[in-house]
Amino acid sequence: MNKVYFYSIGFGILILFDTLTQVSFKLSSTHAGGFVLEWSWLIEVFKNPWIYGAVVGYLGAFVAWMTLLKHAPVGPAFAASHLEIVFVLIISSIYFGEKLNVMQIFGALCIVAGIVFLSLSESKSDHD
After folding, report:
1. Cβ neighbours of residue 3 under 8 Å, at least 6 residues apart?
2. Is the pTM of this model over 0.90?
3. How is residue 100 annotated by DSSP?
4. Domain that holds residue 90
5. Rounded to the nearest 10 degrees, what angle do helices 50-71 and 3-32 cross at?
6. What is the tens place of the pLDDT at every residue in 33-82?
7. How many domains does the chain fold into?
8. Which of 106, 70, 108, 74 minimizes the C-alpha distance to 89?
9. In angstroms, how far is the first alpha carbon of the chain from the final one?
């Protein structure tokens, strides 16, 4: 299998599972209401099916991450795994109606730029 194809599919799966985890936590916490250090609150959290979406997301992300680390260089792989932050930011804005400020947009662009630069430097070192 082509390395670029493998990495693209692998990181796509990782990002999907990581994003599922974060969105599931958001939906579950919205259902349970504000955090209260009481058993009744914890029971409310576990009544909501979204908390199990978060568990599935964590397990899927773990398997995807371990598979990627077996083959991918650690530096760019670690950086690319943070694309999930950008995707969660976009979904939060679109789906949950959260407002983005200039610093959040700038931070997301910095994450994407950092991943691009690390990937380019890694591919250049492969050719040397």
Report:
1. 71
2. no
3. P
4. 3-127
5. 160
6. 787 788 888 888 888 889 999 999 999 999 998 888 888 777 767 777 78
7. 1
8. 108
9. 22
